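C-alpha cells help. One example:
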Amino acid sequence: MKKVVFAVIVAVLSLSMMVSAFAAEALKVEVKDGNVVITVDPAGTEQGSFDANDWIGIYPADKEGYNDSSLWWYLPDEAATWTLPADKAVSDRIADLIDENDQLIPGSYKAILLDNDSYDPIDGMEPVYFEVTEPAQPVTAETTDVPDDPAPGTVDIPQTGDFAVSLFAVTAVLAMGALVVFAKKRSF
C-alpha cells in the first residue's frame, strides 16, 4: 500500500512540474543595464494560446494579490517582447514606475500573466520576480544583439524552463522505475 501511495505522489509531483515548465516558458523577465526585457509566449501556457482579454500585470514584489497593478497591458495573440522604459507606449500606467527622467525606478517587482480580465493567474502561472538596481541605459544594437555562436570558453546557461523539463524527465523516470519494482513484486 505504501508503494502505491508513493507512486501516486510521484505522479502528482511530475504533473505539477510539467505545469511549472509551461509557466516558465510563457513569461520571461530579464533586467539588463536597468532595462526590463519582458517576453511572453502563448505556446508556453497549458492551452497554448492567450485569450483576447488575458493580460500582464507588474507589481511591487511585496504586494499581496494582483489587484491595482502598477503597470498592465493586454497580451497579443503571438509571442512578443517589450523593453521598458523604451516601450513605454505599451501602457499609459508606466508613469507609476518611471521617474522624471523616464528611467525605471529601482526596486523589486513581480510580473504575472492574468486570465481573461480577472485577477486570477493563467493556469499554472506563478509570478516572476525581478530587481531593477540601476537607471536604464539606452538600448542600442550592441546591447540587444546576441551572437549566434557564443565566444570560445563561454558557457551556455540553461533557462529556467530547461531545468523544469529536466526535473520532470528525471522524476518521470524515477516514477516509472518505482512502478516497475512494484509491479514485479505484485506478480510473484
Notes: Residues 86 and 139 are 8 Å apart (CA to CA).
